[in-house]
Automatic annotation (TrEMBL):
The enzyme's E.C. designation: 6.1.1.19
Protein family membership: Belongs to the class-I aminoacyl-tRNA synthetase family.
Organism: Melghirimyces thermohalophilus
EC class (word): ligase
Entry protein name: Arginine--tRNA ligase
Record's catalysed reaction(s): tRNA(Arg) + L-arginine + ATP = L-arginyl-tRNA(Arg) + AMP + diphosphate
ATP-binding among keywords: yes
């Protein structure tokens, strides 16, 4: 618990004691005291709405409640400078922020670990994301989901959760059959043979290249096989190589997975049939028109769903039910699924299936990432210059770079539509958010180089910190002190974009401070104090950018 967190905890206890002393509520009735940092500095450094929370319990006007709370508070606490009541009953606290300089000493001890908390208390969390069909390259939507998923996992780990990153491999079903037929056609084309292409086949360049590779390696050997044997070989060949390409591209994008879970394994182990039998045993299925249906409408779905078709084959949702049942049975306290914009209808039917199986659906969260539109030169971009096909993750990494791509995707809430300006993403201007934040870090390191040239040690100097007395310095100190709680909140809310927003706000404070205050000057004590302050800012920028998977350059 850092200095600001200790202040907040002490203030919460002070407020709670005042509520009880004023007879506004008993200890049992006392709601959790919430403190927030007001956006408007004129509203104080910390504020609470406890008076509004107590209105129903105390049966009084919130403004009157606020006055009684303030009257009973211990005002002798050293860090409280002033208390004001505002609006309908908000209580605003102005604190002595000079004591916040202690945070620099704490950060100097923790360094790369600053921001870590035990908020999650080791709770096991499974995060499934990307999970693209292994039938071609990852596209624009996968790029956004990969960035959001990876950053969320980093945030959760920093907040003390035990996280597993999982990729669900759709290696069974009709899409893999179509991939096999498509690859067979491209293989025959490469051999110069007649090759009718399947109507629902995959026409991307990856399949073309893979067909040519298969022809070079195997010649016409596969043509001598029986069809079933040939298809089995091509299926496995395609899956192996396409999945390797996906892993390679994700690795270049700085995304790694702990688990690659095979859909086929659910069929091979009998888990799909077991899930159907369990639903039937629980009385949640019925037969109609020769098919087996799930009574999902009883659990919030808009209609019932077919599990087993008339011909005895499974619908696409049935192995997905088995997969999510497997997730619950592995003992995760929280299950997070990050899906694309086309999965809105998927959520209620999967929640209904899990409820029908007796699981707590509140343990399962779905984050649906909205559509991305790419713009370049003011024009909507739909096709890759490189291939003439849809924009892929590789295109983005080559055109924009990993840093800018990840930061921009991570900086927006998953449920918001995103217009991605490729020109802005590569520009070195303050309008480019990733440049703005990285430049803050580089700017600080430029000051450090100048300081070393003048004989100053670039280290936190405890003896000089009392020289930090300017309001912008206190603003920076308070912002640094808020970092651990910001990470904890982002983890609790599954809102990784909060980290990017925090870093942008911190960079704004830094740039403003740098433009108005000289760090290296005649006053040596103040110089050492300001170097100490900038060390803290640089450390948080580095820690935050690392969480987003973005570099923190020392020169730009």
């Amino acid at each position: 618990m850092n200095t600001l967190e200790q202040m907040k905890e002490e203030l919460k206890q002070n407020i709670g004691a005042a509520v009880i002393a004023a007879g506004l509520a008993s200890q049992e009735e006392l709601p959790e005291v919430m403190l927030e940092v007001p956006r408007d500095k004129s509203h104080g450094d910390l504020a609470t709405n406890i008076a509004m929370q107590l209105a129903r319990i105390a049966k009084k006007n919130p403004r009157q409640i606020a006055e009684e709370i303030v009257e009973e508070m211990n005002r002798n606490k050293g860090f409280i400078k002033e208390v004001q009541i505002a609006g309908p009953g908000f209580i605003n606290f102005f604190i002595d922020r000079s004591s916040l300089s202690k945070i620099l000493l704490e950060m100097d001890q923790q360094k790369d670990d600053y921001g870590r908390t035990d908020t999650g208390a080791g709770e096991k969390v499974l995060v499934e994301f990307v999970s693209a069909n292994p039938t071609g390259s990852l596209h624009l939507g996968h790029a956004r989901g990969a960035a959001i998923g990876d950053v969320l996992c980093n945030v959760l780990e920093t907040a003390g959760y035990d996280v597993t990153r999982e990729y669900y491999i759709n290696d069974a079903g009709n899409q893999i059959h179509n991939m096999t037929l498509s690859l067979e056609a491209r293989y025959r084309e490469a051999l110069g043979l007649e090759a009718p292409f399947p109507e629902d086949g995959y026409r991307g360049p990856d399949i073309v290249r893979l067909g040519e590779k298969l022809a070079r390696e195997e010649g016409d050997r596969l043509e001598q096989m029986e069809e079933a044997e040939r298809h089995a070989f091509i299926r496995q060949y395609g899956l192996t190589h396409l999945l390797e390409k996906i892993k390679e591209d994700l690795g270049d994008y700085r995304v790694k997975f702990d688990s690659w879970f095979s859909e086929q394994s659910l069929h091979d182990s009998g888990a799909v049939q077991e899930s159907v039998e369990e639903l039937t045993k629980r009385g949640q299925t019925y037969e109609k028109e020769g098919a087996l249906w799930l009574n999902s409408s009883s659990f919030g779905d808009d209609k019932d769903r077919v599990l087993v078709k008339q011909d005895g084959s499974y619908t696409y949702i049935t192995p997905d039910i088995a997969y999510h049942r497997n997730k619950y049975n592995r003992g995760y306290g929280r299950i997070v699924n990050i899906f694309g914009a086309d999965h809105h209808g998927y959520v209620p039917r999967m929640k209904a299936a899990m409820a029908a199986l007796g699981y707590d659906v509140d343990q399962m969260t779905f984050l649906i990432t909205q559509m991305v539109k790419l713009y370049q030169g003011g024009e909507l971009v739909k096709m890759s210059k490189r291939t003439g096909k849809a924009i892929t993750l590789v295109d983005l990494m080559e055109e924009v770079g990993v840093d800018a791509t990840r930061y921009i995707f991570a900086s927006r809430s998953p449920d918001s539509h995103l217009d991605f300006d490729m020109d802005l993403a590569v520009s070195q201007s303050n309008e480019n958010p990733v440049f703005y934040v990285q430049y803050a870090h580089a700017r600080i390191n430029s000051v450090f180089r100048q300081a070393e040239e003048r004989g100053y040690a670039v280290q936190v100097d405890p003896e000089s910190l009392s020289a930090l007395q300017e309001e912008p310095e206190f603003d920076l100190l308070q912002k640094l002190a808020e970092f651990p709680e910001e990470i904890a909140t982002a983890a609790r809310q599954l809102a990784p974009h909060r980290v990017a927003r925090y870093l942008y706000d911190l960079s704004t404070l830094l740039h403003s401070y740098y433009n108005a205050h000289r760090v290296i000057q005649e006053d040596e004590k103040l110089t050492r104090a300001r170097i100490s302050l900038l060390l803290g800012v640089a450390q948080v920028l580095k820690n935050g950018l690392r969480m987003i998977g973005v570099s923190a350059p020392e020169k730009m």
